[in-house]
């Protein structure tokens, strides 16, 4: 869960490295550093804090045409200057940045110390430059030293390294993302495309076991044995401006407001003559499916719940499993099982491990992801893309809505294919209403009272979110978003569960947000009244004429639409409440403490 950038070419590298790290701060912001090689040594500059702190600490910009950079989300060792990357060997001749976790670092560290290597940090990463140095001494060849080093490592890694006196960047990956960017006069390596999107949109997605050597004029990809590998080049369909804040104070607010566009992209070309048209998954794709398992984490888990609810309504046996618990908690798996992995980045370690476990047990797999060429997209049997565009804010917003819509379309494909399923009777009406969803979101954004509500309730002691059916997953997502960026206590519940324990916590300082979808809302209203009787202020998130508004003190309005889409409109209101509350509290909205965007470690 760290951000890596490397650059080699003509001209100075430092400015490119620093701007790349700024574009990668959503992956970690505990500490940052760069190393530049200019023919007179490897110069390392690093410190705890954010990239701005690193830039402020530089007395002058280091010169050199090649270098590596890193922004850290701490796993081994606290965020200190010593633990910041890059790390070097004892002599400072080899510098390394790393994303992932080295499982056998303790053993390797002990062996290297016995050979005279001196360590200065608490990190697992520091063993890597020392290993490379040790094998360079044995072989006299840096490329071979890198190969031997990564063969020695156990765990996950994306690594970029530079060596004093050599015009080359060495890199390798196993279990952590790494992408190669190609330009006419320079090459890039990074954890994610936004790091170099200002320079090029031509990329190669590297795979596990790949070893890369870059020099100023060329690149080579081989396997661990040195056999050349030919990887295809892709063009990233993202505008560099999509990765910037533009006129907004925060990426999160920009991405909330971008949802009409992202949803339009998600829907485009996927509805035809009142039916679902998925180019990646044509009619008949799932005719052999008997059961479906969704695996996901965090916000993606809530989107998976949304899809699973719809699939159960169609009569298809379905379960949703947190990816981290898949090995111990999933039901029976066989060749009739479809495992749907929902992951925005396509690199979520727990979700990837769940897919691999399911595949080993004979299941078929499908990735629902935002990133073309991601590990999930490559390893799953099939992939469907949510088309939300780059999302920089750590708290997911537009990707949740695009995931939910993509999954809703997928459920209709499954319902049409699976022989025992019962497609929705109002399927054509539902799909017609989906076409209006971007416009409805736009209306919410233009008319919302979320900012005023946030100011009025920001001193509350706790915040509860309730909903029934599809509204339950929206309530859970609303609570997650609130706690992520405000640091205030928030919980989401199925409406009917409020009286089975949580009601004991309700006071007049506990606002209850009641999510209405137009289906099964009677239970939500009943439980809102129960909370209100105990003094809780009720916030109805519903259409204007909904019965919930009769009991609520405050109303956040959403356009009247089909029940399948109403919850997504409510979700936009809840995103805005969270954002404005965090803004009033002066929280670091785009970089909430202890969190990172892409969780690539288990």
From TrEMBL:
For this UniProt entry, what is the primary localization, expressed as one broad class?
Answer: cytoplasm
Coiled-coil stretches noted in the UniProt entry, renumbered to this chain: none
InterPro entries the UniProt entry points to: GATase_2_dom, GFAT, GFAT_N, GlmS/AgaS_SIS, GlmS/FrlB_SIS, Ntn_hydrolases_N, SIS_dom, SIS_dom_sf
Q: Tell me where in this chain the Glutamine amidotransferase type-2 domain is found.
A: 2-217
Q: What is this protein called?
A: Glutamine--fructose-6-phosphate aminotransferase [isomerizing]
How it assembles, according to the record, is:
Homodimer.
One GO cellular component, as annotated: cytoplasm
**Catalytic activity of the protein:** D-fructose 6-phosphate + L-glutamine = D-glucosamine 6-phosphate + L-glutamate
């Amino acid at each position: 869960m760290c951000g890596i950038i490397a650059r080699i070419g003509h001209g100075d590298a430092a400015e490119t490295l620093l701007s790349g790290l700024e574009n990668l701060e959503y992956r970690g912001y505990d500490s940052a550093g760069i190393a530049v090689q200019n023919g007179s040594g490897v110069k390392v500059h690093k410190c705890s804090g954010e990239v701005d702190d690193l830039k402020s600490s530089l007395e002058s910009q280091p010169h050199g045409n090649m270098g590596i950079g890193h922004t850290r989300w701490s796993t081994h060792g606290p965020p200190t200057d010593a633990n910041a990357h890059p790390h070097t060997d004892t002599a400072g001749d080899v510098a390394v940045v790393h994303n992932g976790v080295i499982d056998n670092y303790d053993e390797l560290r002990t062996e290297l110390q016995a050979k005279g290597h001196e360590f200065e940090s608490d990190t697992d990463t520091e063993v890597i430059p020392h290993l490379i140095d040790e094998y360079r001494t044995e072989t006299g060849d840096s490329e071979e030293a890198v190969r031997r080093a990564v063969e020695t490592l156990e765990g996950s890694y994306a690594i970029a390294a530079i060596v004093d006196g050599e015009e080359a960047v060495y890199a390798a990956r196993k279990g952590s993302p790494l992408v190669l960017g190609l330009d006419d006069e320079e090459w890039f390596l990074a954890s994610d495309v936004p790091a170099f999107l200002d320079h090029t949109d031509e990329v190669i997605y590297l795979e596990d076991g790949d070893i890369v050597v870059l020099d100023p004029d060329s690149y080579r990809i081989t396997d661990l044995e040195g056999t050349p590998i030919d990887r295809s080049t892709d063009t990233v369909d993202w505008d560099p401006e999509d990765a910037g804040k533009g006129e907004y104070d925060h990426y999160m607010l920009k991405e909330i407001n971008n949802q009409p566009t992202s949803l339009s992209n998600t829907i485009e070309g996927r509805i035809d003559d009142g039916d679902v048209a998925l180019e990646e998954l044509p009619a008949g794709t799932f005719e052999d499916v008997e059961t479906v398992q969704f695996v996901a984490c965090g916000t993606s888990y809530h989107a998976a719940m949304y899809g699973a609810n719809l699939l159960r309504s169609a009569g298809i046996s379905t379960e949703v499993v947190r990816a981290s618990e898949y090995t111990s908690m999933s039901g029976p798996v066989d060749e009739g099982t479809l495992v749907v992995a929902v992951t925005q980045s396509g690199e979520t370690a727990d979700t990837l491990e769940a897919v691999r476990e399911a595949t080993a047990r004979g299941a078929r797999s499908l990735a629902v992801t935002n990133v073309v060429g991601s590990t999930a997209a490559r390893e799953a049997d099939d992939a469907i893309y949510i088309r939300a565009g780059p999302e920089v804010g750590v708290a997911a917003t537009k990707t949740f809505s695009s995931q939910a819509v993509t999954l809703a379309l997928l459920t209709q494909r499954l319902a049409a294919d699976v022989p025992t399923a019962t497609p929705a009777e109002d399927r054509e009406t539902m799909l017609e209403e989906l076409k209006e969803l971007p416009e409805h979101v736009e209306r919410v954004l233009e008319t919302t009272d979320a900012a005023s509500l946030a100011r009025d309730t920001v001193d509350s002691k706790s915040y509860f979110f309730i909903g029934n059916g599809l509204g339950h997953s929206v309530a859970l997502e609303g609570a997650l978003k609130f706690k992520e960026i405000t640091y205030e206590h928030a919980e989401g519940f199925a409406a009917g569960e409020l009286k089975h324990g949580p009601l004991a916590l309700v006071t007049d300082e506990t606002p209850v947000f009641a999510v209405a979808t137009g289906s099964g809302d009677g239970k939500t209203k009943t439980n809102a009244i129960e909370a209100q009787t105990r003094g809780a202020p009720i916030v109805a998130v519903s259409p204007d004429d909904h019965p919930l508004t009769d009991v609520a003190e405050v109303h956040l309005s959403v356009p009247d639409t089909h029940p399948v889409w109403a919850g997504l409109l409510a979700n936009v209101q809840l995103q805005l409440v969270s954002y404005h509350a965090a803004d009033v509290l002066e929280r670091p909205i785009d970089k909430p403490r202890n969190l990172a965007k892409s969780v690539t470690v288990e």
